[in-house]
Amino acid sequence: MRHACLAILLSCLASIVSALEIEDHRHFPGTGDRILKVISTADLEVFEPYLKAFQVSQSALSIDYTVVSSAELHRAIRGGAEFDLALSSAMDLQFQLANDGFAQSHRSEATAGLPDWARWRDLIFAFTAEPAVVVLSTKRFDGLGLPTTRQELLTLLREYPDRFEGAVGTYDVRDSGLGYLFATQEARSTDAYWRLSEVMGRLNPQLYCCSGQMIDDVATGELALAYNVLGSYAAERLARDSGGRVQILRMEDFSNVILRTAIIPATANETAGAGALIDMLARLGQREAPGSWPLPPLGQTGADNLGGFGPIRLGPALMVYLDPLNRRAFLTEWENAMEQH
After folding, report:
1. How far is 257 from 255, CA to CA, in rounded Å?
2. What DSSP string describes 4-55?
3. Which domain holds residue 93?
4. pLDDT tens per residue, range 106-157
5. Considering the domain boundaries, does residue 316 fall inside one?
6. CATH at 18
7. Dmax of the chain from CA atoms?
8. Total domain count, the chain
9. pLDDT value at position 341?
10. 7 and 113: one domain?
């Protein structure tokens, strides 16, 4: 009877997953009947170690893990999809869900230990701090100096347009929630963002939904560089790149640092399991050193670092560019800059 009920439940889960534009999906069986349904923007190869570590202490709990884009995750939770835990790199969209009543509260010793800037009202919890970086192809940059600021990158793109024509990658911010967050936060912080966007727009830029795809295309040499990708994904890819085909640059003038966050959706049923996984992630987020985990801890990029390297803050200011009028105006300006061909 237990197996029959489990089969029915898995069939229901499959129906939910099939309605989403999923990027990956995997079921991690446990020894009991309970299932923790997780929707996440973190790639499986990055997040699987965390899930396996969690199941060491929660062996009875099965985990159903669905990978989607940040925008798709936001739509799913707002539309009432039944997941027990939502993990996203688009902290503005996560904050909006929590602020608008789509998250349940959770409080524990682990979450209470998080810095004030890494949690909000016991509804949203950060567990990593990840910078935006530039990833470049060492082959395509052979003979060129490496830019360390946006102004140097601007100069390089202007001086070698033939070399970079069709070979610059960045997010399509109309579809990528993380890309939109990076773009809006950078536009607020430095005037160089729009100048750089206009220069990229003259080079027929390649637009992507996700960091992983951009990094892969840099590794193959299809792209000369990818702009504003997640540093954690770039580091993971670099660790697998024995040929030295990619290099990571962090702009010295300014760098966005996002907080990867977790919420328990209002529709969650397995709240105990969701809370336990949040607690594990919160404790890992507070570790002193990166260790062998794929994602960096919160302390690796502290909130008080100088030079524009501190994390984007959790708070109502995150929702400024989610206002429909502000979003429409920003996207219009972005399209004018990036789509000049």
Report:
1. 6
2. HHHHHHHHHHHHHHHTS-EEEEEEE--SSS-EEEEEESS-HHHHHHHHHHHH
3. 2-129+258-309
4. 999 999 999 999 999 999 999 999 889 999 998 999 888 899 999 999 999 9
5. no
6. 3.40.190.10
7. 70
8. 2
9. 62
10. yes
